[in-house]
Amino acid sequence: MSATNSFSIRFLGAAETVTGSKYLLTANGLNIMVDCGLFQGLKQLRELNWKELPVDASSIDLIILTHGHLDHIGYLPRMVNQGFKGKIYCTEPTEDLVQIILKDSAKIQEEDAEQANYHGYSKHSPALPLYTLKDVEITLPLLNPVQPNQFVELSDDIRFRYRRDAHIPGAAFIEMDANGKRFVFSGDIGRPHDAMLKPPEKPEKADYLIVESTYGDRLHPKESTKDTLLAIIQKCISKHGPLLVPSFTVDRAQDFMYLIWQLKQEGRMPDIPVYLDSPMGFDVSKLFLKYPEWQILEPDVFKEVFHNTRMVSSVEETRRLARKTLPMIVIAGSGMMNGGRILQYLKEHIEDPRATIIIPGYQAAGTRGRKLSEGEAEIKMHGKYFKVKAEVAQIHTMSSHADQGEIIQWMSKIKNKPEKVFIVHGEPHASDALRLKIKDTYGWNCYLPRLFEELELI
């Protein structure tokens, strides 16, 4: 759509599902993509990553990123491969995260393809990575960091700005103005009482609101995360086994590091060794020192947290550490256990009743984390099945996503009645529950878009 004063939106991801965030807004002939994420979880979704978009990538003028998680940035190298050459806007912390995470993602994909070819467990011959480190290097120069709360002029009649959204360092929601209409893209809304990050700001106006619904059907438990974690640690120590923490290396790993440091400072747990086995997690942790303006935690405190955690750098060290059976806490990526160094620990300990595995947050359908959280008796890794004999402990209070009540509160300052609210980034039942809650609370007109659906707005 290219007519003057016309708008359309196309949902190229995170519709009817949580992953693969990509929204294409055509406004006055300008093609703007908001987020550019990978699909994760179910095989039929992951296979979409290998297909070209149903739109010409070279026709997209620019991309605006809300934050640096893989399901919001991980498709960028594929976009560039398909012909995208425009600017990629982001906040400064997100620029750093994009570099860290895309390089890590490409490295993992290259290693997985190499392993699959060596062991012969891929159906493809040869198995190929989705993209390579070389592809990432071509993508990174397109990044264009901007400050929050300052409008960026995209054309004579279109501008946007970022506002802080908590969730992770650098996360922001987008307010975009075009011909008197305001479009608000929520990104992933963070928690109002995060232990480390400043609370999310709230929009005051939205003619079109695109809002996430990851936890749109529930409220987070109110019990103390620290006490829950302590009980898990104490039980694990009593069994003389290791505690494995599959963790998202942006924010969640740092949350665990901080909580464990607090418990040690309070004298509530013994000084057992704590390891962060993720080169990416190490780099991300340094961002908490680099961008204190996004946080409520003092830099000196985080330095102490950092020093309390032993960093594992090499794959050889990972293999040695994974063979140990003494009490220790290992925080390793990835959070949904679909890749990363955590798999080395799972292969060594998942069949050991003395070991404990923490499920620390949302697990997408089709991931190993989801299967473990639902009590499956066997887990497949690298072509082999392993029986689940380790204890699986779940912590439901650590999500970096707002729950239903917090999403409703995030909307509470919007003074006008939006023309349409699009509910995205959620499994269907969660999105529909949020739709009903918004309708009952505010009386707004909500819509649940289908994947790849395009809608004319004006």
Task: Characterize the structure shown.
Helices cover 31% and strands 20% of the residues. The protein is α/β, with parallel strands linked by helices and 458 residues long. The chain has 2 domains: 269 residues, Metallo-beta-lactamase, Chain A, CATH 3.60.15; 170 residues, Rossmann fold, CATH 3.40.50. The chain has a 7-stranded mixed β-sheet with strand order 6-5-4-3-2-1-22. It has a 7-stranded mixed β-sheet with strand order 7-8-9-10-11-20-21, covered by helices on one side. Strands 14-13-15-12-16-19 form a 6-stranded parallel β-sheet, with helices on both faces. β9 and β10 form a beta hairpin. α4 runs antiparallel to α5, α7 crosses α9 and α10 packs parallel to α11. The termini are close together.
What's a concise summary of this model?
Helix content is 31%, strand content 20%. The protein has 14 helices and 22 strands.
List keywords for this structure.
458 residues, alpha/beta, Metallo-beta-lactamase, Chain A, Rossmann fold, 2 domains, seven-stranded mixed β-sheet, 14 helices, 22 strands, 31% helix, 20% strand
Number of domains: 2
CATH T-level fold name of the largest domain: Metallo-beta-lactamase, Chain A
**How far is the first residue's CA from the last residue's CA?**
11 Å
CATH architecture title of the largest domain:
4-Layer Sandwich
Work out the helicity level: 25-40%
Low-confidence runs of at least 5 consecutive residues: none
